[in-house]
């Protein structure tokens, strides 16, 4: 997806990471690299200069928060500004206890009918009961295509090939599904052009008949920043509550489409990433930018760092950063890491580590963390407070209590000591220390 943008942004980050030091010249160079990357992806010139100006200003003037190096902080700034460019991270929630009506509209050829079947599949897999109304009476074969694709998801499609009155088809379709105990009805409509007055008038009538809970504008990602004008034109006819961008898998203009859609104020809710029926996903600016930069969702790591700062008391922090942490502190950090979720998720979130560690290695690491937690829980209070007490007989007792062999207890003690030394050397940068002690930093 957006391969050119992805590779050029990652090259810009690599330049920062591999540099011997960060100075004004390097930051200005980064800014120019980002400008070039975004302009090549058809992002609006004004937006490009705005975002790079913010990146420059913040990189030069902001002080990195505790635990982040200046390089990491600049990468974080880049991540923040790109995510901001693509809109907010909000999610539409369908109301329970009623039928939610979703109206799909857009220019002819944008892929609405395909999106209707993909969205039906996507929502069905989430546990919603979905029905579809085929109200595209303008394009020959639209209803047949819709039914064929929705059959794969066991989703019922209502349509009437003989009836060319779209608002009436919608009215009849809603009546047909009235007692079917559905959660969501998707309404597929004929493609419009913003200049086609008759079709736009028909859309107004459909909107009046359907009274939708959500109107989704389907936009072809290959048209780039023209998405802005399209979204505005449709919004005047039917209040657009969200946008679906299709064909992002092959588009050199995808960045422009995303940025332009976000600039309309309507949330980009879903993106089509391929031709298969399952190639539709919920759009999250933070996750999307994370993938572009090879970071997964960096927010998970930042949230963890914030929790470590906020929740840890001063005594604990001083103890850790001075290299005097005990086994309780070590256990505390393991607990904090597991709050983020799976270790796979954590590593996917780390800049530079996403996708670099094999699955079988990750499984071993997760198993190791679980073992360590059980072993530490089998220690008494005195041993947790002062691990230097752990002699051969105590190791034997702890091994019996935890259910793990003695060599596993010794492995934990060894890693604890490595971690302790690393914390001292890195002045309390917990995340870096944690990764290094697992042989990955």
UniProtKB/TrEMBL annotation:
GO terms for biological process: SRP-dependent cotranslational protein targeting to membrane. GTP binds at residues 106-113, 188-192, 246-249. Residues 98-275 form the AAA+ ATPase domain. The keyword GTP-binding applies. One of its GO terms (molecular function) is GTPase activity. The keyword Translocase does not apply. One of its GO terms (cellular component) is signal recognition particle. It is an enzyme of class 3 (hydrolase). It holds the Pfam family SRP54. It comes from the Archaea. Residues 99-294 form the SRP54-type proteins GTP-binding domain. It catalyses: GTP + H2O = GDP + phosphate + H(+). It is found in: Cytoplasm. Its main location: cytoplasm. Residues 1-86 form the Signal recognition particle SRP54 helical bundle domain. Keywords: Cytoplasm, GTP-binding, Hydrolase, Nucleotide-binding, Ribonucleoprotein, RNA-binding, Signal recognition particle. Its EC number is 3.6.5.4. Composed of three domains: the N-terminal N domain, which is responsible for interactions with the ribosome, the central G domain, which binds GTP, and the C-terminal M domain, which binds the RNA and the signal sequence of the RNC. Belongs to the GTP-binding SRP family. SRP54 subfamily. HAMAP family: SRP54. Involved in targeting and insertion of nascent membrane proteins into the cytoplasmic membrane. Binds to the hydrophobic signal sequence of the ribosome-nascent chain (RNC) as it emerges from the ribosomes. The SRP-RNC complex is then targeted to the cytoplasmic membrane where it interacts with the SRP receptor FtsY. Part of the signal recognition particle protein translocation system, which is composed of SRP and FtsY. Archaeal SRP consists of a 7S RNA molecule of 300 nucleotides and two protein subunits: SRP54 and SRP19. This is Signal recognition particle 54 kDa protein. It comes from Marine Group I thaumarchaeote. The lineage of its organism: Archaea, Nitrososphaerota, Marine Group I.
